[in-house]
Amino acid sequence: MKMQDKRKKEIEARAAHIAKRKAAKERHRTAPVIERAKLDKPGRQRILIYCEGANTEPSYFRKFELTNIEVKCYGEGRNTLSLVERAIELREQAKMKNKPYDQVWCVFDRDPAMTNKSGHTAENYNEAIRLAEKENIGAAYSNQAFEYWLILHFLDHQGGPLPRTGYSSQLNTYLKPYGCTYEGNDSKTVTNEIFDTLEAIDAKTGKRRRILAEQRA
Predict the structure, then answer these.
(1) Exposure string (b/e) for 164-183, b if CB count within 10 Å is 16 or more?
(2) Helix/strand/coil for 45
(3) Could you report the per-residue pLDDT of 177-192, keeping only the tens digit for each?
């Protein structure tokens, strides 16, 4: 008798378990579908910066670490007009690879002489500006050289009697207290130490030096 009661309870328990599973499946089948919300992440912007200088400018721009922006920076020693023409080629090549740039910038010097050994004539410069505007390419030029931009991080220099040959030594007078040196006659590279010094807070004003340089420029 006891064996029969035990058997009966096992059958009832199994039946209840099966019924419970069927009910759960039915609820799952008829329940509304709720999709996980997808994060709307903005696409990373791609920016091409094509520089006249092969060392100083690229080594400077590559130091910036930006989360949502991918920066490609090149420098091949080309001058004003050929620089813009080469930037157009690189932009079109990127399009063909289905990796277009959102912005393209050309960075070059504005030499004071009408002509020099680098082929920088006034007309060459003006034509480069016109072509850049026509092709919707940004033109960022330094008068006279890129090192002038670095000096502006420390001094509100108005472009007085300081020839471009003196830019490196002038810059190093400001870098020396921070234990770094700009090798203007050698590697012409903006090192991590120099970049960190440029990006630091100025003790006198309490402002970031790059902000001061922008205001002075």
Answers:
(1) beebbebbeebbeeeebebe
(2) strand
(3) 999 999 998 999 999 9
